[in-house]
Design brief:
By secondary structure, this protein is α/β, with parallel strands linked by helices. The chain has 5 helices and 13 strands. A hairpin with a 6-residue loop joins strand 1 and strand 2. The N terminus is likely disordered.
């Protein structure tokens, strides 16, 4: 009897291990809001953003589609809520690719002290940095240099108040965190945001950028109680994984 139970357990375990790479969506099954960005392929650096609300088991598109720009070199599998496929490029620090997959949406941020959003919001100061120095104990974290010390942010290329540090740059005037590499694994990619773009023909170092109007709509729409997630995938991957990952219809 014990052997039969053991064999049954092994069979269930083997089945679970077999289906896990396909992507059972247990890590985002409670999401009721989803931002979806699709691109023409792994090398594409422009895409289309759509927003969805889940009613029961069905996703319904809400609001207009919008153009976005992503990493200069396209996209690559990041580390988020999804099981990590073995095929396709893998995200790493400095590759100028936006992470592909499914990710929690973190804090919103901006230059103003407050913003019209229900999301947790941080009004940035001149001493706020995101640390992109591989090997730093603060890698992939937003920190205040007044708290952690100036030495801790030395070499970081991500001062968050870009308007103060980079000649009035507006890119981070509004944005939110895309939680790639949440365990801050060295080399896994850092400081991934949704933020404002310079122009429709621009690209990023790995973030997703958009117009002011699109960002303002997203921040007003996002509801932390709905457990929102951010999805970025090449269209072919989206179609391949849509059913297994319970994604909205294209």
């Amino acid at each position: 009897m014990r052997i039969a139970v053991l064999l049954s357990y092994v069979a269930v375990f083997a089945w679970s291990s077999a289906v896990l790479p396909t992507g059972a969506p247990h890590n985002w099954a409670d999401a009721r809001q989803m931002i979806v960005v699709t691109t023409d392929g792994w090398q594409a650096n422009h895409g289309t953003l759509r927003t969805y609300v889940r009613h029961g088991s069905s996703w319904k598109e809400e609001g207009p589609a919008a153009d976005v720009v992503i990493g200069k070199n396209g996209s690559a599998w990041g580390t988020g809520l999804h099981p990590l496929p073995q095929d396709g490029p893998q995200k790493h620090e400095g590759d100028n690719r936006s992470p592909a997959g499914v990710f929690h949406i973190g804090k919103a941020f901006g230059y103003a002290a407050s913003q019209r959003t229900a999301m947790p919001y941080t009004g940035l100061t001149a001493t706020d940095y995101c640390v992109d120095v591989d090997g730093s104990p603060y890698y992939n974290q937003l920190v205040d240099a007044d708290t952690v010390g100036k030495a801790a942010v030395a070499g970081s290329t991500e001062p968050m108040r870009r308007d103060l540090h980079l000649n009035g740059d507006h890119l981070y005037r509004l944005g939110f965190v895309i939680e790639n590499n949440p365990e801050n694994r060295p080399g896994g990619g850092s400081c991934i945001f949704a933020h404002l773009w310079r122009a429709s023909d621009s690209t990023t170092a790995g973030c997703t950028a958009m117009t002011d109007a699109t960002m303002e709509r997203l921040l007003a729409w996002l509801d932390p109680k709905a457990n929102p997630v951010f999805v970025l995938l090449p269209r072919a991957e989206y179609m391949r994984l849509r059913d297994a990952w319970k994604l909205p219809p294209p």
